[in-house]
Amino acid sequence: MIPYFSDLSANERTYLAWIRTAVSLMGFGFLIERFDVFLVYTTRGAVLNNGLHMRASEWLGLGMILLGAVLILLATRTFYRNCRLIQAEAETPYHGTTVERGLTALLVGLALFLVLYVGYQLTSLN
Question: 3-class DSSP state for residue 43?
Fold first, then answer.
C-alpha cells in the first residue's frame, strides 16, 4: 500500500482539474481571438462603425491563451509542492490562497470586459 494514497490522489485530482480549466481557458481564448472573423463575416453587408475595435478581441484572446499557459505552470508547481508536503513528516500551515484569489479576480475582470465588449459591438451594429 502506498502511504498517504488518498491525499496524493486528491492532490492529483485537483491538479487535473486545474489543467482542464487551463485548457478550457486557452480554447476559449482562441475562440475569442477569432471572434473578429465572425464579426466581419456577419457584418459584410452592414456599414461598420469606425468605433468598432476588432483588434481588442485578438489581444484578449491572446491574453487568455497566455493566462492558460501560466495557469498550467502554476498548477504544476503547486502539485509538486503539495506532493512534497504530503509526504513530509513535519506539519506545515496551509498558505495557498493568494494565487487563487489573483486568478479569480483576473478571470472576473476578463468576464466583465467580454460582457462590455460584446455589448458594445452589438449596439454599434444597430
Answer: coil
